[in-house]
Write a structure and sequence with these properties.
By secondary structure, the protein is an alpha/beta fold. The chain folds into two domains: about 180 residues, Periplasmic binding protein-like II (D-Maltodextrin-Binding Protein, domain 2, 3-Layer(aba) Sandwich); about 190 residues, D-Maltodextrin-Binding Protein, domain 2 (3-Layer(aba) Sandwich), CATH 3.40.190. About 45% of the residues lie in helices and about 15% in strands. The strands form four sheets. Strands 7, 8, 9, 10, 11 and 12 form a six-stranded mixed beta sheet that branches. The protein has a five-stranded mixed beta sheet with strand order 2-1-3-14-6. It has a two-stranded antiparallel ribbon with strand order 4-5. A hairpin with a 2-residue loop joins strand 8 and strand 9.
Length: about 425
């Protein structure tokens, strides 16, 4: 996920009173002994806990970066700890804050930044960042601010992409670069679906029925999830129903698979089906790019999400935040770590190793990334799609709100409700939540 170093910041906690005590140490006595112990404490590196939410090879890359930081910053020791996926990490961080044993730095999924900030869990990073905040790609900063204060720094950032098995598309006489519109996606899916013995052996398309992809299709249909003031749900509309009508239509035609499983388990099923050649096209994160390319035995293509009225995608992934309850010394050390992890020299190899987007403007324009884009154009797709991307909604209640929406859209996909019924019920429940 990232590499290399920046500067070293020495955190000396020396207090004037300790200097007086040191002067008295030669005369002997308890005060001198206490001062000597305090001086020894000052020489110790500042230890900070870092909780992260990426497993597998991406998690291994996180640990390699932490090891490099620790080896080049002798005055700071970062202790990394994997806490499960975004949902699990979210719950664990809030529980730890309540218990008083929270980490100093953690990943927070971008849609949850507002909830954490409003709960006063996060440190205002403005005084630490200064003008350094301007080094980050503007399109990735939409989920970094809450009420005009900087609370989060982009780290493992993504947009959803369409991945295609180019070999399958070529064999079917289709454009190997993939479909450009919803209508084309439906046509491609129909042509790529294969049956044998009365059973479907290859589906043309699959996507987890997830809020992130739903948001994308609403944006593509000219809609919004929330009103500008964040007080009204906007999906009880043509744009809000369009994704469900699109998905349920393909499911009825038998050309789309809704992978089983809850939340990220469904994502894993979709990715494995794609790797195994049981699905020709899927929606998943740009953060899966490197893993899919390495695992697949076919030519993997990455493309924009197909357009309806227009292209559109929510940004996603996670930002790094510093917890407000940490000590001043820990916060300073935490900022040194966050700044290093997200700087150009680290975000380039992080992007190339994982597929997540580079987060600084300098990195995106660097010779290393330009060379990578030329050699593997898939790496540049997410960066180009930022032109059509929007921040995820991040009002404090959005985590609960998205659960309501996901439950209802899944009911529609399972045939337990019509799109109109599902959207109507989601809107009713959501509006009550937003009024709390």
């Amino acid at each position: 996920m990232k590499k290399c170093g920046i500067g070293i910041l020495a955190f000396m906690l020396c207090l004037p009173g300790l200097l007086v005590g040191c002067g008295k140490q030669e005369a002997g006595g308890e005060q001198g002994s206490g001062s000597a112990e305090a001086a020894r404490q000052e020489d110790k590196p500042v230890e900070i806990d870092f909780w992260y939410a990426l497993g597998g090879k991406n998690g291994e890359m996180v640990n390699r970066l932490v090891d490099e930081f620790n080896s080049t910053h002798k005055n700071i020791v970062v202790k990394p700890s994997y806490q499960g996926d975004y949902y699990e990490n979210h719950a664990k961080v809030l529980a730890a804050v309540s218990a008083g044993n929270q980490p100093d730095v953690t990943m927070v999924e971008v849609g949850s930044i507002g909830a954490f900030a409003e709960a006063k869990v996060l440190e205002d990073l403005g005084p630490y960042a200064g003008e350094a905040k301007d080094r980050y790609i503007p399109g990735l900063m939409g989920n970094s601010y809450w009420k005009d204060k900087l609370y989060a720094i982009p780290f493992n950032r993504s947009t959803p992409l369409l991945y295609v098995n180019r070999d399958m598309l070529k064999a079917a006489g289709l454009d190997p670069n993939g479909p450009k519109t919803w209508d084309e996606l439906r046509q491609y899916a129909a042509k790529l679906t294969k049956k044998a013995g009365g059973k479907t052996v290859t589906y043309g398309f699959s996507t987890p029925i997830d809020i992130w992809f739903y948001e994308a299709l609403v944006f593509q249909s000219g809609g919004e999830i929330l009103s500008e003031d964040g007080k009204s749900l906007m999906i009880d509309s043509e744009a809000g129903r369009a994704p469900l009508e699109f998905w349920t239509g393909m499911l009825k035609e038998g050309v789309m698979k809704a992978p089983p499983g809850e939340k990220y388990n469904a994502w894993d099923v979709a990715k494995q089906d794609f790797i195994n050649g049981q699905v020709a096209m899927i929606f998943t994160s740009t953060g899966d790019l490197k893993g899919l390319q390495d695992a697949a035995k076919f030519d993997v293509g990455a493309a924009f999400l197909p357009a309806n009225k227009s292209y559109g995608a929510p940004t996603g992934g996670a930002n790094l935040v510093i917890l407000a309850k940490s000590s001043e010394a820990e916060k300073k050390a935490a900022w040194e770590f966050v700044s290093w992890m997200t700087d150009t020299k680290q975000t380039i190899p992080w992007s190339l190793e994982t597929g997540y987007m580079p987060v600084t403007k300098e990195a995106a324009l660097s010779d290393e990334m330009k060379k990578a884009y030329e050699q593997t154009p898939n790496f540049q797709v997410a960066v180009k799609q930022l032109e059509y991307a929007k921040p995820r909604p991040m009002v404090p209640g959005y985590k609960e709100l998205q659960e309501i929406i996901m439950t209802e859209i899944q009911r529609a996909v399972l045939g337990q409700a019509t799109p109109d019924e599902a959207i109507g019920k989601a809107a009713d429940k959501a509006q009550k939540l937003l009024k709390k």
